[in-house]
């Protein structure tokens, strides 16, 4: 059991599958209280029951569509009322549709911005006063290596993750002397249902199959880093090295990696 996490209330968005469900499981395993949010009521109920059976820990859950800002604002208020204080926030919810900009549907663009950016801003903005008042807290934003290297067919998705990284870095500097930790988690491809919506053809998922991350391991690393001052978690580490090279020589890397970049 992790003493840093024990007894702490951790709000997790996008908790009904993939990384989110494993985050809830590892929080409970380490003695914390996961507060799960997602659209799928059925999945949340199942995960909460499994956590209770496995660890004897209550796992709270709230059904919410994070793309609906007004409703999500009200649900955050309800969460704060129900629990009094929150110790950490993991902004995990995210979605993508990989398309050329010229072929993209506006509803898909709008939803990516709403879920990946606006809801993350909303949740953080609403909970930040609680963290500041209690003089402690940890905000973890699940970003992406796509926020560091944009590729064809992911213009909007990459833009949303660029926004998350910019927001995270600025927020970290604003609150670092107030007892609040802020961490970005920059991931490569993860073996989840994410790609079923992002690329229904399955072509991109097949092309990166050998390098896909295990969502359980990703979640464990994130939970192990809770309440530790850490600027970034980059997985896999070699992909982050590529991001650093890209920042120095973007034109060269785009030329060299053109074939890989165009596999979406």
Automatic annotation (TrEMBL):
One Pfam match, given by its short name, reads adh_short
Q: Which GO terms describe its cellular component?
A: membrane
Keywords (A to Z) from UniProt: Oxidoreductase
- GO molecular-function terms, A-Z: oxidoreductase activity
| PROSITE patterns, per database record | ADH_SHORT
Q: Does the keyword Oxidoreductase apply?
A: yes
Kindly give the SUPFAM superfamilies that the UniProt entry links to this protein: NAD(P)-binding Rossmann-fold domains
Recorded family membership: Belongs to the short-chain dehydrogenases/reductases (SDR) family.
Q: What is this protein called?
A: SDR family oxidoreductase
Q: What is the lineage of its organism?
A: Bacteria, Bacillati, Bacillota, Bacilli, Bacillales
């Amino acid at each position: 059991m992790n003493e840093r996490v024990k007894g702490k209330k951790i709000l997790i968005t996008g908790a009904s599958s993939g990384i989110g469900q494993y985050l809830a499981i590892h929080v409970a395993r380490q003695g914390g209280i996961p507060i799960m949010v997602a659209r799928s009521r059925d999945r949340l109920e199942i995960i909460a029951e499994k956590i209770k059976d496995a660890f004897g820990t209550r796992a709270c859950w709230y059904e919410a569509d994070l793309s609906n800002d007004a409703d999500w604002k009200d649900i955050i208020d309800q969460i704060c009322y129900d629990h009094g204080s929150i110790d950490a926030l993991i902004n995990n919810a995210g979605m993508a549709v990989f398309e050329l900009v010229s072929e993209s549907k506006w509803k898909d663009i709008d939803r990516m911005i709403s879920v990946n950016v606006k809801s993350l801003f909303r949740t953080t903005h609403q909970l930040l006063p609680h963290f500041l008042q209690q003089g402690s807290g940890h905000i973890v934003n699940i970003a992406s290596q796509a926020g560091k290297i944009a590729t064809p067919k992911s213009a909007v998705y990459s833009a949303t993750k660029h926004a998350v990284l910019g927001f995270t870095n600025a927020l970290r500097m604003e609150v670092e002397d107030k007892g609040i930790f802020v961490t970005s988690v920059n991931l490569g491809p993860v073996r989840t249902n994410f790609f079923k919506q992002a690329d229904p053809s399955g072509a991109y998922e097949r092309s990166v199959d050998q390098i896909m991350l295990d969502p359980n391991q990703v979640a464990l690393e994130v939970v192990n880093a809770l309440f530790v001052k850490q600027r970034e978690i980059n997985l896999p580490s070699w992909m982050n090295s590529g991001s650093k090279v890209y920042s120095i020589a973007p034109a060269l890397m785009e030329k060299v990696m053109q074939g890989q970049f165009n596999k979406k």
